[in-house]
Amino acid sequence: MAAAKYIFVTGGVTSSLGKGIISASLGKLLQARGFKVTIQKFDPYINIDPGTLNPYEHGECYVTDDGAETDLDLGHYERFLNTPTSQANNVTTGRIYNNVITKERKGEYLGKTVQVVPHITDEIKRNVFQLGESGDFDFVITEIGGCVGDIESLPFIEAVRQVKWDVGANNFLVIHLTLIPYLSAAKELKTKPTQHSVKQLLEAGIQPDILVCRSEMRLPQEIRKKLALFCNVHINSVIEALDAETIYDVPLLMKKEKLAERVLAKLKIPNKTEPNLDQWKDFLGNLKNPTDEVKIGLIGKYVELPDAYKSIAEAFIHAGSVNECKVNLQWISSESINEENCQSVLEKLDGILVAPGFGERGVEGKIQAVKYARENQVPFFGICLGMQCAVIEFARNVLKLKEATSTEMNPDTKHPVIDLMEEQKKIVDLGGTMRLGAYPCNLKKSSKVYSVYGKKTISERHRHRYEFNNKYLERIEKAGLKATGINPDTKLVEVVELEDHPWFIGSQFHPELKSTVLNPHPLFVKFVEAALNSKKSNTKN
Is 325 a catalytic residue? Predict the structure, then answer.
């Protein structure tokens, strides 16, 4: 294959149908045949990136190695394909307009009137072709966020129409994901919403090549025929996408429906090999047939919306499969924990994870959870703010520095054991200005974290402004909380762990962002193992 092939995934009828999972599943099926695949997401909102969005509004903000703050679908792409994404894989309307306006201000349009067509659509296409022309990929799959017919999606849909004429019909394909609702009163599956959605695409000048139909019920042959007839697609290109037990079932369901074969046939690519999904099937086998179960409490302030901690939840699924163990996550609001109820809320847990977050709301509950884990020998894992809470708790209750806290919570504290990084103090703009992306970290050879990774230097992704204050390092280490991971360039503390505890580790970085199906993150794997051991020893006692 010389030129890259461009596949676009659009959505109709309703949002949240799973365009990201379908895109990732198709990518996986093509990759399993030996093709090089990348997936990008176009988000129609005007924010430059989701970095300033409330997690309740948007779910988690996923961070790439190169420091891009992106949509959580990029996490799915990485978890399925096991290849890193970058800034180029997530583009918003805000980024597009920002780039065009910047060019206009510099005079790059030579006095021309700047318009949606061609200037905005050209900028959208530039972002599509940037990946395809790199020579690194056989397929570029582009997911268009939102629904066909949304006002904010129109420039993206127009750009997709133009791409077909730029690259030729044999290098271009559109998959339209839509909903076939079941009306229980009429006991019927209804195709009309899909017909209207395809009609809107046709009005925009785009004929979908493949329909992927989300449904709770099997699609009978007559429904497939009706969809094919009214939507002008071949009956073999009407693909059924039933609700799945787990998102990791979807590649196998799409294989059964021959989605990748239809794509390859339409793009006139010989389909010589069967996809190799043996490792994927092994993972699913372990996931669905656990030999044990652990209860792990996820202590956070956004627990009403699990998508706010999507990567952590998925990392536990990967780690559970390795340990042949079902991880039963207990979503516990940190605001609901206090000194009086702490034991009754946490005593039935086999492990405690204190989640990342920003701001002071719920922090005291997180600190109480850390204290409980430390004093009761419960396996503990703190990520980002969770690690910082471990430091604050230790300073308060072991070093007896009662006012110890982070300057994020109290700028005037006497004991700022967590403080704003020096280079952050002059920053006014909030978007894209944190410590973002992958940084190296050196691990101490005698540490538990070194035994987890099995190597001295690691690279992990960050997203934070506040850091361990090294002025307190000597006192904290002397009392037993060791800094076992240090950034070689800045000397910032990246990992702390407690001596004389079965498993007590806090990381300033976000290990969950690197966990994939084929490479589960070792920190999560060993934490689940520690929770299992804790459960067994408690049962014995």
Answer: no
510 is catalytic: yes
467 as an active site residue: the answer is: no
What's the CA gap between 228 and 222, in Å, rounded? 10
C-alpha distances in Å from residue 378, one per residue of 284, 337, 446, 452, 537:
29, 17, 22, 18, 11
Residues 6 or more apart in contact with residue 144 via CB below 8 angstroms: 8, 9, 10, 11, 19, 42, 44, 153, 156, 157, 160
**Where do runs of H (alpha helix) occur along 378-501?**
385-397, 448-453, 473-478
At residue 33, the 3 state secondary structure works out as coil
In whole angstroms, what is the distance from residue 278 CA to residue 39 CA?
A: 23
Q: Which of 119, 415, 510, 521 is catalytic?
A: 510
Query: Tokens standing for 53?
Result: 């969005």
Q: Which residue has the tokens 């349009």?
A: 109
The torsion angle over the Cα atoms of residues 353, 49, 21 and 282, rounded to 10 degrees, is -40
H-run or E-run covering 382: strand 380-383
What number of CA atoms fall less than 13 Å from residue 189's CA on the CB side? Answer: 21
Instruction: Measure the CA–CA gap between 333 and 311, rounded to whole angstroms.
Output: 18
| Amino acid at residue number 500 | D
Marked catalytic residue, from 213, 231, 384, 389: 384
pLDDT digits (tens, 9 = 90+) for 139-186: 999 999 888 988 989 999 999 999 999 998 899 999 999 999 988 888
Selection from 532, 80, 59, 540 nearest residue 327 by Cα: 532
Structural tokens at position 149: 């017919």
393-420 pLDDT, tens digit per residue, is 999 999 998 888 898 888 889 999 888 8
User: Alpha-carbon distance 400 to 388, whole Å?
Assistant: 17
Q: How far is residue 365 from each of residues 229, 332, 386, 408, measured CA to CA in Å?
A: 58, 10, 11, 16
